[in-house]
Amino acid sequence: MNASDQNSEKHEKNKNAELNKLNKSRKFCKFYYKGESKRKHAKNDKIKKLKIRLKRGFKRREYNSDTKRDITAYGALSESYDALMTDADYDKRAAFLIRQFRRRGFKTILDLGCGTGTIAWLLSRKGYRVIAVDASSEMLTEAMGKAAAYPGFSPPLFVRQSMSRLDLGRQEVDAAISTLDALNYLISESDLRETFRRVYQFLRPGGLFLFDVNTPRKLRRMDKKIYMDESNHIFCVWRTFFTEKTGICVYQVDLFSQRPDGAWDRRFEEHQERAWSEEQLREFLSDAGFTRIQITGDLSGKPPARDADRWLVRAEKK
Fold it and tell me: 0.85 cut: is pTM over it?
């Protein structure tokens, strides 16, 4: 065998050796992907499978004994509410409200449907005396637990009451607010009318009622939709159904929370919001005694756009 043949044979052996190494590397990578990578992303795999199951239909949830359920809105969801509402921009909303109050010299504020109390605490931090009302004891527990985050400030007075049964005794306030579509949760005309009447009763003359609502267009558009929110150790699925006859949008909420041992708890609750038209809001407010009623875009003094998702409503007490 001459030198040229020997070099050719040596080159071929080296080439085969490199190919064997490459194949082994590929096998290792394939093994790693199937093993370690899957274990690392087990949570994501479970969530993907859940999404596939959820998209197989828009049937309303049937209750069963294996699911912890709470038909009272914001029972199961209360502990996770703030983690899932990171896009609410509370600071911007509170700053807008404060500008309205300063123009009129307001000092005492009623917060209707205060939820976990973020807006109430932000107003208290600016020196306002706030009475914060909500029907959910679980949400109020979360609200009162925020005291450590706002040291040195006079805390809001948190009161458990439904909006349509509002009773402040002899206390009057300069302004009443309701944010993030809390009033849409009043699904009967009688409850909404009674809420307006009671707010008017506890406002001082010249007082302002300022609230926002989800628009009929938005709630109608949400029919047969699935929304998903995820934060650290929490996964939430919202299914929504709008009924044109009643004007009510039902939110069916599945909440998955991860326990320290890695297992997941699943809870269920149902929310309902009603679509109120501009004409209805104006009529009910006027019947309660309010004047100078304005409906604008959210956090704006301009008329709402035709495709607006949220309206801001202002009304004054004579």
Answer: no
